[in-house]
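Hello, quick one for you while I still have it in my head. Could you read through the record and tell me how the C-alpha cells relate to the sequence? No rush at all, and the record is pasted right below.
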Amino acid sequence: MQGTDFVQGEVSVTTHRGHDDLLSAGLGLDGLKGPPAPFANPVQPTVQELRRRAIQTSWKGIADLGPLGGYGTVYGAVPDVPGREYQAFAKIPGAHQPHRVLVQIPDHFDQTHRCLVVTASSGSRGVYGAIALAGAWGLPHGCAVAYTDKGTGSGYFDYADDSGVALNGERAKRGTAVLEFEPTETKGEGIAFKHAHSGDNPEADWGRDVLQAAQFGLAMLDRAFPDQAPFTPQNTKIVATGLSNGGGAVLQAAGVDEHHLLAGVVALEPNVHTPNHGRALYDYASEAAVWLPCALMDARFASTPFARDAKGAQHAAWAARCASLHAQGLLKASTLEQQVAEAYDHLHGTGWTDQAMATAASSTALDLWRVISAAYASAYLRRGANHMPCGYHYAAIVNGKPGVADEATRASWWADGSGIPPGNGIGLFGGSDDSADPHLAGITCLRKLWTGDDADAQALHASVSALAVKLPRKDLPMWILHGASDGLLPTAFTSEPYVAWLHAEDRRPLYWKVPHAQHFDAFLALPGFGDQHLPLLPYGYAALDRLWAHLFQKQPWPTELPTPAGTARGAGALEQSMLGL
C-alpha cells in the first residue's frame, strides 16, 4: 500500500449496505428532504445516527431539495450505493491541527474506468460538505470519492465540558481520544472551532489538503482492492471538484500539484484569490458588513427578496446604519434617501454590481458578512477562542445570553453544525454596544484590520497574501462555473479575474458565468427567492459528464463552450428547458 505518513492515528473502516448506503445513509431522496433524521437518545446518539444526520445536513446545506426545485426529476439522483468508508485525521507539515479525510469506495467501483473524485467541503462544513456535488456525481459513475474538511468542520470544542469530537463523530473528553480539533489553550471559556481557532491559517493549505485526500484515496483503493493495486495517477484518473470554498480549494490544489496527480478540475463558484487581480474575500466581506445594509435600502431593491421585512417595509436596523455612517463622516448627505444613494454609489465604485448587491440582500439579512469577517479575522490572525480580534467570542446560548450547552445540544453539533457559528445553540457574542446600531463597533474594527496599517492589519494582510492561487499546468483540463448573480462570492472579485489571469498566462480554462444562478442552491426553496434564479448544481454535473467523456471516451476537450442561456424558474416548478443545457 502507498505511503500515508501524513495520517495521524488509526484509519477507521466501516461498511455501509442495506439501509445504510454511502450516498444518503439509507435515507434516499425522500428521506433527505424530510425532517432531521432522529436520534433515539438525543443525549447519546449512535455513530450511525450521527453519520446519517451529518450526510442529510450536508445535502440540505448545498442542494435545492424543495418541492419546486427539480432535484431527482429534472436533474440529479440519489441511488442506493453500497460500499465502504475509510476515514482518518491527516496533517499538513507544520500545521497545529489535522484535517479530516474520508474515502467512499462503492461496491460497484468501475475497474475498467478507474476513477477517483477528490473534493473539499463547501464553506466551513464538515467532511461530507461536498457530497451533493462530488458524491452524487462520482459514486453512481463507479468512482471512489475522497473528501477533506480542509481544516474546517464542525468538530466544536466546548471548554465548559473540556470535550471535542472523536474520529467517529462522538463527543470525547480531551485526553481520552484523538480529537478532530483540540485547542492548544488548555483553559478557556465558551466554544472553539477549528477554522477560526486552530492557530494555523488553514485556508492557505486548502490545496495541499486536497492533494493529501487524493493520496489517501489511492492508498485506500490499494487496501480495498489489493489484487488490483497499485492505484496511481497513471492508471486511475483523479478528478478534483468542489464548490464555494471547496471550489477555491481545488483551484489551489491545481496550482501546487507538482506530481501531476490531477487529471481534471471542475470548480463551482470558487472562493479564489488571484494575486494582483480581483479582491480578497476578507476585503469585500468586511466592506459589505459596513455598507450593504444602507445601500440595499435603495428603491431599486424594493422587490428584492430579503431587502425588505416580512411586511414589505424597510429594515429599521438598516436605516440606523445609514445614520451611523453619516455620524462617522463616511456619508456626507443629511437625508436618508441621499445617504442610501451615497452608500450605493460607494459600493458601485468598488466593483459591486446591482446583480451582486441584490442577491447579497440574503447574506445581509442573515448577518453572514459579520459572521464571516469575525471568524476569518481570527483565523488569519491565528487567534484562540479567548483572544479573538475586536472583542468577539463564541458561547452556547442560554436564554439569549452566553451560557453552558446542555448535553443534547452538544451531542448534535458534529452532525448539525455548518462549521462557523452562530447556529445549533451557539452564538457569536461581543463586538457590540448599546447604540441604535449595536453591531457597527465590531464591524468597524474588523474593517480596519483590512484598511488600517497597525501590526494586526499587517499580520492579516500577510495571511491573506498566503492564499494567493498559483498557476496550474498547461495541459490540465479545467472548467470554472459561477452563478452570474452570486452575491456572496461575486464573479467580479473571484472567478472572472482568475480566468482572465489564466488566459493571460496562456491557459485555456472553460468558464461558464451562468445566468440566473447564485451562490446558495439551498436558498432556492425559500419563498420568492427561487422564482428569480436557477440551481448551479446541474451545470456542475454537466461539466463533470463532459470531463468524464474526455478522460474515458477520448472526446476532445473543447477550447471554448458557450454558456447555456437558461431562464429564471419563476413561481412554478423547475423544468428541463429552463436550464438551457
